[in-house]
Protein: Enhancer of yellow 2 transcription factor
Organism: Drosophila grimshawi
Amino acid sequence: MTICDTVDQYTIMSGDRLKIKDLLCNRLTECGWRNEVRLLCRNILLEKSANNSVSVDQLISEVTPKARTLVPDAVKKELLMKIRTILAETDEDN
């Protein structure tokens, strides 16, 4: 089991995963990431629709790498700090 799997499993069991997910969703909305990804999807659909229809799987495979690069470093750092805080609190409790 990797460290990511262990952290993921712990956050699910402790109930903190929902808090982390909510924080991520809020930050992505605040920084405009959701709108950027929406526009990215729209542009891909417009570009591809001229040729033929685009499946959801094709859209996801094309958008995902680009969307990941659009996540601001500040959001990534804040999430990492939150996860570290949760894990540190766990160590203190044990």
User: Anything to note?
Assistant: Residues 14 and 86 are 10 Å apart (CA to CA). The two ends are 21 Å apart (CA to CA). The mean pLDDT is 88. Helices lie at 3-14, 16-30, 33-49, 56-70, 73-93.
